[in-house]
Amino acid sequence: MTLAVGALLERARSETGLKDFGDNWFVKPLTRLVDDVNREAGLLSPESSAGARIQSALSDRLKLVQYFKDNPAAKDEKIELACAIIGLPRTGSTMMHRLLASSPKLTALWWWETAFPLPLPGERLSDPAPRQDAAKAMVDWLLTEWPDFESIDPMDAMAINEEVVLLDRTFLSTTYDSMMPIHQYGFWQAEQDHDPAIRDLYGFMQAIQHQRAMRGEARRPWVFKTPHYVLGALDGLLSVWPDVKLVMTHRNVMDVLPSYCSMCASLSVNSSMTYRKDRQGAHWSRRFREGLERLEAIRARLPQGQIIDVRYEETVSDSLGTARKVMTALGWGFDDADRSAMDGAIAANAREARPRHKYAAADFGISTEDIATTFAFYHERYL
Q: What is the CATH number of the domain that holds 191?
C-alpha cells in the first residue's frame, strides 16, 4: 500500500469536519515527503506509521486555522525567544534546554503540547488534562514500540520537548529522515527555504501561548532547542527572529554520530524492510558535515556575541556553573531562584537514572578515523 497526497488531505478534512488549510505552501514538501516514503522507506505498514503521522499533522494544520477563527486574539500573541539551542544531537543540548527552561524567568514547550498543540473536542481551554492524559498514554505506547529509546533520550509527557515536533506539521523536518530511511528527502529538505515553516511554527506558538494565558499563566520568553536548525532550518529561524541569541552546544563528533545513528536505528529497525544500519553512518556524516558547514557560513555574517558556545564537557562537569554563564551571556542574569530551580533540574535529569546507551561506530558502516577526518575542521575550531 502506498500513500497519496490527495487522499491524505481529504481524509484530514473528513476526520476534522474542517476544510480550510490556509496557505497551501506546505503541499510541496508534503508531496516530496510522500513520494520519498513510497519510494525508499520500505515501511511494513505505511498507513499506520508515516501515514498516521502525516494524517495527524494535516489535521492539526486544519485545527490551527480554525483556532484563530475561533480565537482571533491569539493572532496578537507576540512570541519572544530568550534563545535557541542549536547544537548537533547528543551534544548536551537536552540538559542545557532543561536547565535554562527551569528558570522562573523563562519557559519551554511541554511534551504534551508538542504532541497535542490544540484542544481536543469538548476540552475546556482552562483544563488541558485530556491532552496530558493522551500524551501519557502515547509515551507508554512509544516506549513499548521502541524499548531501547529510554536509554537514548528521556521521554516524559510532562517534561519539556523540542519544537521540531511542531515543525513536523510543515513537512520540513529532520524528524522524518531520522525515523525512516528516506535519505534523499533529508538532503532535499535541508536545502529548502524554511521561512514559511518557521512562520507556521510561530502560529502554533501563538496558539499555545494564548491557551496558557487563558489558563492564567504568565507570558515568558521561550527557550527553543532542536538540532534541526543546524540540519536545515537555521536561516528560517533567523528570518523570523533575526536577533535571537543562539546557544551552540559542542561535542566531539566521534561521540555524537554513532550515538545518533543508534537512536535512529531504534526508531526504524522494526518498521522498515529497507533499513540498513551499515548505511546510516555515511548518511548522517554527510548531513552533519553539510549542516556544520552551513552554520559556519551563517555565523560569518552574524554579529559577534549572537552565538554562545558551550562544550559538552562543561555542561556535564559543571552544569550549574555553565548554565549561570549562559544565562548571564543571554542577559537574564542569575539569582537564587534560578539556582534553586536548576538544582532541581539537575537532580531530576541525572544520567544514572536511565539505562546505559550502548553503540559502536562500526555497526553503522563508519570508523573513528573517518569521523576524525570528516570533522577535523569543526574539532579544530571548537574543541
A: 3.40.50.300
The residue whose grid cell reads 522498515 is 272
CB 266 within 8 A of CB 149: yes
- pTM assigned to the model: 0.96
Separation of alpha carbons 241 and 233, rounded Å = 12
Residues 6+ apart with CB under 8 A from 12: 55, 58, 59, 61, 62
Which DSSP state fits 303? P
Q: Look at the chain and report how many structural domains it folds into.
A: 1
Helix, strand, coil: what percent of the chain each, to 5?
60, 5, 30
Q: At what angle do helices 277-299 and 253-268 cross, to 10 degrees?
A: 130
Helix (H, G, I), strand (E, B) or coil at 74: helix
Question: Residue 277: pLDDT above 90?
Answer: yes
User: Cα torsion for 147, 109, 313, 91, to the nearest 10°?
Assistant: 60
Distance CA 115, CA 112 (A): 5
Residues 6+ apart with CB under 8 A from 216: none
Is 112 within the bounds of a domain? yes
315 has pLDDT over 70? yes
Q: Is the pLDDT of residue 151 over 70?
A: no
- Tens of pLDDT, residue by residue over 108-130, are 999 999 999 999 999 998 999 99
pLDDT tens digits, one per residue of 217-266: 999 999 999 999 999 999 999 999 999 999 999 999 999 999 999 999 98
